[in-house]
């Protein structure tokens, strides 16, 4: 119908009179009514479709313009409104849990705020403590501050540090002795193998090469026994120096730090006591007294720990070194005296187990 009306409107001749006015036609009223009917009953522009094919193409190529509008809005970052189903689900969840979202948000904020305040307090305490200790340390170095001294304990600590230094020197020398003596034993073993080979290839000197080879093999066997004794000695002394003594020295370092903190807060309390006694000053004095008593208890506790550890360390050192020095002496004496039986008895007495030859070398599987 619309096509018939539009073609009719396009082919109609509209007469013009001499004054430029249109002439009166019998079909004007009917044409106007037809056009109004087309405008009213015609398709909505917002709901029109685009045909992807040519004119008169199949209906499968029709694309609604509303879909194109949605795609353009999404590509421009415009959030489309919820559908009725999504809106109803959101309203139902809100009605069922009206304060859950706000409650979870507030709980998370409170936890984060608590952690931040705790970290800030710890950093503040660390900064104040570091400042006081640094101030006390420089005051002691420049002779302007006083320090708490336990003369007896300080003397024992100095003796321990000196003893540890000397024992470390023993370890260095004994390790060097093992290295050189091991080279000598390897040389003796190689020399004995050479003598054995020559005794088989030189009939006229077979006896001479033979007993020299036996002598070098016997020296090599005794040398391996002596190396086992010296290694046992070095291992025991190393445990004493680098574990037992080092553990005591670690406690001593904690004690010295506690002593420095105690003197720092003691000096701070003395300075506040000499100042004015108004309300604010009394509050600071009371807080300084609490800190003073706290660090005093820590200092006295660590001083007691150091005294006990020094006592047990001295007893352990005497016991260990008595055994190890006796082993070292008997093994060296038996080896250089050529007393193989005494050397073997020494190893049995001190429970020294020798490693089988070639045990230190990696296996063929490990070498791959």
Automatic annotation (TrEMBL):
<dbReference type="GO" id="GO:0000139">
    <property type="term" value="C:Golgi membrane"/>
</dbReference>
<feature type="compositionally biased region" description="Polar residues">
    <location>
        <begin position="16"/>
        <end position="25"/>
    </location>
</feature>
<feature type="region of interest" description="Disordered">
    <location>
        <begin position="1"/>
        <end position="27"/>
    </location>
</feature>
<keyword id="KW-0333">Golgi apparatus</keyword>
<keyword id="KW-0472">Membrane</keyword>
<dbReference type="GO" id="GO:0070273">
    <property type="term" value="F:phosphatidylinositol-4-phosphate binding"/>
</dbReference>
<dbReference type="GO" id="GO:0034315">
    <property type="term" value="P:regulation of Arp2/3 complex-mediated actin nucleation"/>
</dbReference>
<dbReference type="GO" id="GO:0005829">
    <property type="term" value="C:cytosol"/>
</dbReference>
<dbReference type="GO" id="GO:0019904">
    <property type="term" value="F:protein domain specific binding"/>
</dbReference>
<keyword id="KW-0597">Phosphoprotein</keyword>
<dbReference type="InterPro" id="IPR010504">
    <property type="entry name" value="AH_dom"/>
</dbReference>
<dbReference type="GO" id="GO:0006886">
    <property type="term" value="P:intracellular protein transport"/>
</dbReference>
<feature type="coiled-coil region">
    <location>
        <begin position="285"/>
        <end position="316"/>
    </location>
</feature>
<dbReference type="InterPro" id="IPR030798">
    <property type="entry name" value="Arfaptin_fam"/>
</dbReference>
<keyword id="KW-0175">Coiled coil</keyword>
<feature type="domain" description="AH">
    <location>
        <begin position="148"/>
        <end position="348"/>
    </location>
</feature>
<dbReference type="InterPro" id="IPR027267">
    <property type="entry name" value="AH/BAR_dom_sf"/>
</dbReference>
<dbReference type="Pfam" id="PF06456">
    <property type="entry name" value="Arfaptin"/>
</dbReference>
<protein>
    <submittedName>
        <fullName>ADP-ribosylation factor interacting protein 2a</fullName>
    </submittedName>
</protein>
<dbReference type="GO" id="GO:0032588">
    <property type="term" value="C:trans-Golgi network membrane"/>
</dbReference>
